[in-house]
Amino acid sequence: QFQKNSCFHRVLNNSPYAVLFGNEPKLGLSSTSLNPSIFNDITTEEELTNELGILTNDAIDVNSCTSDSEEDELNTDELKIDEPNVNDELDDNDQLNITEQDEKNNELLTNRDKRTNDIRETARQGQKRQADEFLQNTAKRHKLADLNVGDNVLIPVPDVDRGPTDARNVLAVVMEIKDDKYKLGVEQGIINGYYSFHQISKATGTPTILIENMNFFEIVQSASLRPI
After folding, report:
1. 201-202 and 189-190 strand pairing
2. What is the pLDDT of residues 66-76, one digit of tens each?
3. pTM of the complete model
């Protein structure tokens, strides 16, 4: 799933991860706080551990032993703690450095927000463009159907409803057109529900099922084409 979200998306013009977070995912050493300039110099796990400042198990054991011995010495000897001199006021140079750092952080946040908004705007335009293309293609297919009331059409029969010797299609007639949906009738009666233009195809030749004859047939109650 992570690989899918981090791959380039043709419509979004970015990866889904970048659209959500504003930057591409960081993998490997790039996900750490290390300077990229030292990536090529790190060849072993020990070097990476030293750079990250992570203590190994041996170092932890040594430190624990040292702390225990120091604690024993502190218990036997009297401690003398000298309080350091703390200046309550920062000098002008320190205050200037803090101000510059705050301005730099604010600039980084502003740039990141702008980059994120640009990526999301590009993704939104790509989705809108794809939606427009889908609607145009749908309108073209609908126009090519060119079905009117009284036309004969073919309804494909699903494999689960068709036997080995049954026909692949059922001949029907367009009874009504409502909201670009088609009410169909067959020899056994009128089929419940409406069909979309992509579910049927126009039958060639002279219509053999007429609307005038449909009033004499019983309405088909089943939504499936099995009893037809």
Report:
1. unpaired
2. 555 555 555 55
3. 0.43
